[in-house]
C-alpha cells in the first residue's frame, strides 16, 4: 500500500495506531502532528512516525487522516482541517472515546469534495498515556468500533478496516448514539466510580493514616483506572453528559436498593445480589480482549524468600516458555508471595503449570 497517513496526536493511541499500520504496511508513509514538540521528537526517534508535520496543512497531502487527540481537541481540529484543500477521496477518522458529537460534526464537515468521515474507537487502552506507552499490539483481539452514518462512510469504513488490519482488532459497526450509551455503562461510568472510591479513601486517610497502607488487593483492582489521564476523562464526561446523567439516576437507585437490604439485614437478598453479579461477571468473555482485557494468568503460591522469582522464571526459560507479565500480589506480600505470571496463550499457561508443579512443587491455580 503506497498511501500517506496523517496522525494528529501522537500519544498512547495515536502512537499505537501508527505502529500497527507500519507493521502491516511498511511502505505506507506515516506523518505525525502533535502540539507538543517533545512528543514529536520522541515519536520520530522511536520510529513511530516517518516524518513530522510542521502544521496541520500537511492534511492536504494525506490519503487518510486520523485524529488521535483528546475528544474536545478533536472537534476543534476537525473544524480547522475542514477549511483546507483536502484530497477529494481522503478518508478521515478518529479514535475518541465518545462518538455522538464527533460523528455528527464529521458528517457535517466532511462531505462531497472534502473527503468522507467515519468515527472510530479502539476499545482497548491503558491508564498510561504518551507516545512512550504506545505499542503495536495494544489493540490485538480488542473490539474496534466504527460508526458509519451514511452509504459513503460505510464504504470508507471498509477501506479503514484494510488500513487498520495490523491492529488485529475485531471491527464492529455501531450507531454513534448506541456507542455512547454502551461505553457510558462499561467504560465512562466505571471511571467515575473508581475515582469516587479513591476520593473516599483519601478523606479517611486524613484521620486514619493506615488507610493507604491497607488499601491493597480488591481496592487496587477496582481503582486501577483512577490513575488515568484526568484531562482526557474530564473531556469524555462532558461529551457524554446525557448518557452519564441517566446512569447516575440508575446507580443511585441501585445503591438505595443495596442500602435497604443492609438496613433490613435481609441476608437472602444480599446473597442473591452478589450471586447474580458474580454470575454475570464470570460469564464475561475473558479469553478475548474486549472491555475487559484477557490474560492467561497463572498464580503460584510461593514462599517469600529472595531469589524466588528468578528460580521460577529460570524453570520456565529452560522450557522456552515466554512470560508476558509478572507480578507479586501485594496483599499477601508479607505472608506468602503469590506470584502472578501472564502468558500469551492457554497452551503456554498449561505448559507453565506442568513445568512449575514438576520442577518446583509449588501449588498453582487459576482465577477465572
Ligand atoms: N487511553 C485510552 O485508554 C484510550 C482508549 C481508546 C481511545 N482513547 C481516546 O484516544 C484519544 C487519545 O488518547 P490517548 O490516551 O492517546 O492520550 P495521550 O494523552 O496519550 O495523547 C494525546 C496526544 O494528543 C496531543 N494533543 C492534544 N491536543 C492537541 C492538539 N490540539 N493538537 C495536536 N496534538 C494535540 C497531546 O500532545 C498528546 O501527545 C482520546 O480521544 C481518547 O478518548 C483513549
Ligand atoms: O484499560 C484501561 O485503562 C481503560 O480504561 C481502557 C478504556 C476502557 O474504559 O476500557 C478506556 C477508555 C477507552 O475509550 C477505551 C478503553
TrEMBL record:
One of its GO terms (molecular function) is NAD+ binding. Its EC number is 1.3.1.12. Pfam families: ACT, PDH_C, PDH_N. Residues 3-292 form the Prephenate/arogenate dehydrogenase domain. GO terms for biological process: tyrosine biosynthetic process. InterPro entries: 6-PGluconate_DH-like_C_sf (IPR008927), ACT-like_dom_sf (IPR045865), ACT_dom (IPR002912), NAD(P)-bd_dom_sf (IPR036291), PDH_C (IPR046825), PDH_N (IPR046826), Preph/Arog_dehydrog (IPR050812), Prephen_DH (IPR003099). Residues 297-368 form the ACT domain. It comes from the Bacteria. The keyword Transcription does not apply. Pathway: Amino-acid biosynthesis; L-tyrosine biosynthesis; (4-hydroxyphenyl)pyruvate from prephenate (NAD(+) route): step 1/1. It is an enzyme of class 1 (oxidoreductase). Keywords: Amino-acid biosynthesis, Aromatic amino acid biosynthesis, NAD, Oxidoreductase, Tyrosine biosynthesis. Belongs to the prephenate/arogenate dehydrogenase family. This is Prephenate dehydrogenase. It comes from Metabacillus lacus.
Amino acid at each position: 500500500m503506497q498511501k500517506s497517513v496523517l496522525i494528529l496526536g501522537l500519544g498512547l493511541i495515536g502512537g499505537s495506531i501508527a505502529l500497527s499500520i507500519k507493521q502491516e504496511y511498511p511502505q505506507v508513509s506515516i506523518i505525525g502532528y502533535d502540539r507538543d514538540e517533545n512528543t514529536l521528537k520522541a515519536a520520530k526517534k522511536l520510529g513511530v512516525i516517518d516524518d513530522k508535520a510542521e502544521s496541520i496543512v500537511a492534511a492536504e497531502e494525506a490519503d487518510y487522516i486520523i485524529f488521535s487527540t483528546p475528544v474536545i481537541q478533536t472537534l476543534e481540529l476537525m473544524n480547522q482541517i475542514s477549511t483546507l484543500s483536502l484530497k477529494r477521496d481522503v478518508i478521515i477518522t478518529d479514535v475518541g472515546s465518545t462518538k455522538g458529537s464527533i460523528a455528527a460534526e464529521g458528517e457535517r464537515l466532511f462531505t462531497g469534495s472534502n473527503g468522507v468521515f467515519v468515527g472510530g474507537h479502539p476499545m482497548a487502552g491503558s491508564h498510561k498515556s504518551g507516545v512512550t506507552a504506545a505499542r503495536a499490539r495494544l489493540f490485538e483481539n480488542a473490539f474496534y468500533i466504527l460508526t458509519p452514518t451514511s452509504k459513503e462512510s460505510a464504504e470508507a469504513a471498509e477501506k479503514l478496516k484494510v488500513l487498520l488490519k495490523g491492529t488485529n482488532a475485531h471491527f464492529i459497526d455501531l450507531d454513534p448514539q448506541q456507542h455512547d450509551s454502551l461505553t457510558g455503562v462499561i467504560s465512562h461510568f466505571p471511571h467515575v466510580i473508581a475515582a469516587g472510591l479513591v476520593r473516599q479513601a483519601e478523606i479517611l486517610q486524613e484521620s486514619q493514616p493506615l488507610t493507604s497502607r491497607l488499601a491493597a488487593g480488591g481496592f487496587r483492582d477496582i481503582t486501577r483506572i483512577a490513575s488515568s489521564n484526568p484531562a482526557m476523562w474530564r473531556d469524555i464526561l462532558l461529551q457524554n453528559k446525557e448518557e452519564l446523567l441517566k446512569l447516575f439516576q440508575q446507580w443511585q437507585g441501585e445503591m438505595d436498593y443495596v442500602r435497604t437490604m443492609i438496613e433490613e439485614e435481609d441476608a437472602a437478598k444480599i446473597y442473591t445480589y452478589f450471586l447474580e453479579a458474580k454470575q454475570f461477571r464470570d460469564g464475561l468473555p475473558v479469553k478475548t480482549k474486549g472491555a475487559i482485557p484477557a490474560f492467561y494468568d497463572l498464580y503460584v503460591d510461593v514462599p517469600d524468600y529472595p531469589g524466588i522469582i528468578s528460580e521460577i522464571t529460570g524453570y520456565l526459560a529452560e522450557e522456552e516458555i515466554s512470560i508476558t507479565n509478572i507480578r507479586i500480589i501485594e496483599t499477601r506480600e508479607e505472608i506468602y508471595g503469590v506470584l502472578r505470571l501472564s502468558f500469551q496463550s492457554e497452551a503456554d499457561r498449561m505448559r507453565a503449570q506442568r513445568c512449575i508443579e514438576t520442577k518446583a512443587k509449588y501449588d498453582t491455580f487459576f482465577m477465572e
